[in-house]
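Worked Example 4.2. Consider the chain below.
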Amino acid sequence: MLSLSWGEIEIEGVGRVKDAMLHPGGGGEWDWRVTGTQHSPGIQPADVEPLLAAGATTVVLSRGQQLVLQVMPETEQLLAARGVDVHIAETREAMRVYNLLADAGVRVGALLHSTC
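Applying the procedure from the previous section yields the following structure tokens:
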């Protein structure tokens, strides 16, 4: 289960992080600096690769609480090409979808942005 406040996501078994990367079997902090991600053009293919490497068959991408974070078309194309179901939503909705899928036993991964 996950909970959210501005600037903080709490992950059961992990603790509090600013942004989260979750995948089948684990998760933790999502550090955008690793791939150079910015709000625009947004979540890159390199950001989702760790989720796929961990065996995610469904990916949830959050656009932030104010929908500022974008998702690059190339990221959506990569996921489609690999046959991965993708859900893109505002962070609270993304967390709701992630929790539902994880509770149902789906091999789900997520990138969650806690602020704008």
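The mean pLDDT is 95. The chain has one domain: 2-113. Compare this with Example 4.1 before moving on.
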